[in-house]
Write a structure and sequence with these properties.
The complex is a heterodimer of chains A (113) and B (109). Chain A has 113 residues and is mainly beta. Chain A is built from no helices and eleven strands. In chain A, strand 9 and strand 10 (103-104) form a beta hairpin. Chain A is globular, with a radius of gyration of 13 Å. Classes of the chains: A mainly beta (113), B mainly beta (109).
Amino acid sequence: DAMVIQNPRYQVTQFGKPVTLSCSQTLNHNVMYWYQQKSSQAPKLLFHYYDKDFNNEADTPDNFQSRRPNTSFCFLDIRSPGLGDAAMYLCATSRDQVSNEQFFGPGTRLTVL
Amino acid sequence: AQSVSQHNHHVILSEAASLELGCNYSYGGTVNLFWYVQYPGQHLQLLLKYFSGDPLVKGIKGFEAEFIKSKFSFNLRKPSVQWSDTAEYFCAAPGKLIFGQGTTLQVKP
């Protein structure tokens, strides 16, 4: 089945220790998104790629970076995680930005010690 | 700027009760709206969507929503809920998938 896969499902890191979260998709969608979702809150968009074009949200901290080496993969890098970065990180894809129906992965729950 | 708001943050119902969750949008132009559901421990999935045409939209698992332009609303409904409907429900607007605050639905068996 075509799907959005996130690895790992659970990630524990130490305060200030860089961490990378991974997302892959078999849908061949042009757009890939990263969201941060904290407990009992709605997902918050961090950034998205339309093909190779990177689009950062204005209020996304510089601590968060992303890479998309090819259509299938997208990475979220947190350079120096703080306690406030503990959250669920969701990856999503859509065929294009017009239809914008998004398909979500299961998420990676990040714990910062 | 686009915005979406949900009125009910936490709803508790008994099985077989009817459900209506409110969603209001505040933007003009072409209006497209979604309802997503997040079951406990699972990923977000699309319940239904409105792009144009019939304002009464039917989705998966017996859910439906009605787009009422005059009220800027897109409320989610289900005539008879089940325990398995316990989940978080999000109304969302496209563009950058702007989510409402979410509604936690708890259905008591």
